[in-house]
Amino acid sequence: MPDPHTPCQRILVTGAAGFIGNAFLRRVLSKRPDASVCTFDALTYAGHEENLEDLPGAERHTFIQGDVADAAAVRKAIASFAPDAVVNFAAETHVDRSILDAEPFLRTNVFGTQVLLEACRAADIRLICISTDEVYGSLEAPLEADTDCALAPRNPYAATKAAGDLLAQAAFITHGQDVIITRSTNNYGPRQTPEKLVPLMILRARAGASLPVYGDGTHVRDWLHVDDHSDGILAALERGKAGALYHFSGSNEQSTLGIVRAVLDAVGPTGARIEHVRDRPGHDRRYQLDVSTTHAALGWAPIVPFAAGLASAVAWYLDNDAWSRATAGEDLRTFLEANYAGR
Ligand code: NAD
Ligand code: DAU
């Protein structure tokens, strides 16, 4: 278990070729000049080698391509890099994909979590499990889930995240393992795969394409800048208690329509128009987290104002055209419409 006052020197970050893991990796390399970080990532459709270029302190970063559900590969990475701690961002993360095919979600989010728990227990190192507000299910306003709230996931992605969290909780109770769970609300910022709402709308708005809003567009999410989330995770890694659960929220609720209109304003006139499309099956209306115990325990609070954070995110996607083209992948929207048809 790390000394709570000594920052970790060697951190294995799984899933750091993806969105939040990559922001965390960059944050650690810039804020902790003595730290060495190894990325362990399978490079699925959501993992981008481009994200591992131009890192601050790149000489302190190494990369291993591997699957968290492959126990031998995980053990080998831990033996060779010898980390003080592992922070797990590796996951299947897109709700729409989980509705179409949940199997990869079970493999990575459930089995992969158990593999990491066992490998970290054998090496006697801390494991931080990054999780989501979706495990509490849909909440009516003004309810907020506190850290004692029962889990009630309502889509396959959320169910697999809840299962991973329960395995982590069981490892703490059964084995006294040094494991921490963190849950956050929706993140936004640079380098998010453009299947998620914010980057998808930015890139479609720029192209003058239709902006597909599911159902009536009144569904609510809380939006947290990815750098604020990364700072919270770093605080949990360095100052968190074994077995604890920490919540991170931007205290910034927005409807889908509110987000899409803000993106349209930031991108400027291109002829793009909102189009209401078939709703996501089982679409959760709202999530929110109570962050009072996390504020008290870690002294964490978000600092990026939403308007400034969104403006800088929009500028980042517009300025990084090569990244957007390289990561756009298949036309997920066409795929979804074909697959949801008739439900
Ligand atoms: P992402 O989809 O952008 O990236 C996931 C990364 O994990 C990719 O680099 C991918 O290649 C890698 N990966 C997937 N399966 C793997 C496997 N089997 N082995 C190794 N690597 C694998 O994800 P994200 O949005 O950055 O989310 C990171 C974590 O944060 C997830 O656990 C997610 O549940 C959680 N979370 C995300 C949000 C959000 O708004 N994006 C909010 C709350 C919590
Ligand atoms: O709440 C945290 C979760 O946030 C994370 O755990 C997930 O990994 C992450 O993907 C995100 O899930 P959401 O389902 O909230 O994110 P998404 O960007 O897919 O959708 C945000 C909202 O926008 C949701 O209400 C659905 C809606 N939406 C989304 C897309 C992609 C649309 O209306 N149109 C779209 O094209």
Q: What does the model show?
A:
This protein has 343 residues and is α/β, with parallel strands linked by helices. The protein has a domain at 10-193 and 223-253 and 285-305: NAD(P)-binding Rossmann-like Domain (Rossmann fold). Helix content is 42%, strand content 17%. The chain has twelve helices and twelve strands. α5 (156-175) links the parallel β5 and β6. α4 (103-123) packs parallel to α5 (156-175), α6 (197-206) packs parallel to α8 (256-267) and α8 (256-267) packs across α10. It binds nicotinamide-adenine-dinucleotide and 2'deoxy-thymidine-5'-diphospho-alpha-D-glucose. Nicotinamide-adenine-dinucleotide binds next to α1, α4, β5 and β7.
